[in-house]
Amino acid sequence: MKEYYKKYIDNNCTEDEFQQFVELFVKPDKQLVLDANMKEHWKHTKAEETETPDLSDTLHKIHYEINSQEPRTGKTRKLVTYLTRVAAVLFIPLAIALFFTLEKSNSSAELQTVSTPLASKTHFVLPDGSEVWLNSGSSIEYPKEFSRKKRLVKLSGEAYFDVQKSKTPFEVVTENVQVNVLGTAFNVMSYSNTNPEVTLERGKVQLISKSGEEKVLAPGQQAVIDAENSSIQVQKVDTEIYSSWIDNKLIFRNESLKDVVERLERWYNISIELDDQYISDKKLTATIEYESITEVMDLLEITMSLKYEYDKNERKLIVKPIK
């Protein structure tokens, strides 16, 4: 199996070997083997640096891109499922090179930026050993080497941090809030046009809003920052709901359809329009893991008495109530 992978990557396989390679890796139970081969190949590429991110999650980008196209049914849906798996094989080199942006002005630049497009995410390690999971439509900026005074990163979008314990303070700065930590694990959500959220799994963090208001979070607590007046509200939450995305899951617990749609749009890189204010306020409880956008919309139709259609001209899904 490893031999087939290497020959494919080197573009040195025969037609029969290529066919065997495809047959091996379109099977779901071979996903772990595929992931292991990708990681090994990546470690031996010339482009690897200590700060180079782990790009294994970018394969999910292919899955979502294919399923974000016009909804399909019947035999076509089965074919799409098969082609999704084949695509993960055919575009492994592209998945490594694309769907992820690592920007450097030059090799000696002090700052570097990691960005992820919609419907994709990535995991990487910062210079101090802290781990970062960067969600779709997000970017983070950090120095090639942290100073002795503080470890500063700037975030736009959403990221989960597992911070390496150190005497040097770790700071996450967003447009509306600054998060100060020493060693902890937490999720920060700070997309534009939304109220930022900081959810703490373990350790302790201090928050400072633009107005100067300060709050300290304990494990299991979440802070919601009002983007307009910079006030901070703290509440007890189930942290898994807010960090499950790093394990390729979306968890909704009694959330309004309006909020659900916002997360689905980023997750699948597709535009969704709610045609009626009434359905915007309807509540949903569900867990989504690897389902296509068609499967998700079918679920909404069944559980919430809705119907949806695909507008080819606008390239968006329109959700309407059943009257």
Q: Kindly report the average pLDDT value.
A: 80
**Percentage of residues in strands:** 25-35%
Low-confidence stretches: 46-52, 87-109
What is the tally of helical segments?
A: 10
General shape: flat
Within the CATH hierarchy, at the fold level, what is the topology of the largest domain?
Jelly Rolls
At CATH level 2, the architecture of the largest domain is Sandwich
Query: Major β-sheet, in short?
Result: 14 strands, mixed
- Compute the number of structural domains: 3
Element string (H = helix, E = strand): HHHHHHEEEEEEEEEEEEEEHEHEHEHEE
Strands, count: 19
Radius of gyration of CA atoms, rounded to a whole number: 21 Å
Terminal Cα separation, in Å? 54 Å
Helix/strand/pairing category: alpha+beta
CATH class of the largest domain equals Mainly Beta
Residues in helices, as a percent range: 25-40%
Layout of SSEs?
Elements: H1 2-9, H2 15-25, H3 31-43, H4 59-67, H5 74-90, H6 92-97, E1 101-103, E2 111-116, E3 122-125, E4 131-134, E5 138-143, E6 151-162, E7 170-173, E8 177-181, E9 185-190, E10 197-202, E11 205-209, E12 214-217, E13 221-225, E14 232-236, H7 239-243, E15 249-256, H8 257-268, E16 271-274, H9 277-280, E17 283-289, H10 293-304, E18 306-311, E19 316-321
Parallel strand pairs: 6-7, 16-19
Antiparallel strand pairs: 1-2, 2-5, 3-4, 4-6, 5-6, 6-9, 7-8, 8-11, 9-10, 10-13, 11-12, 13-14, 15-17, 18-19
Helix pairs in contact: 1-2, 4-5
Keywords: Membrane, Transmembrane, Transmembrane helix
Transmembrane segments: 82-102
Protein name: FecR protein domain-containing protein
Short description:
This protein is an alpha+beta fold and 323 residues long. Helix content is 30%, strand content 33%.
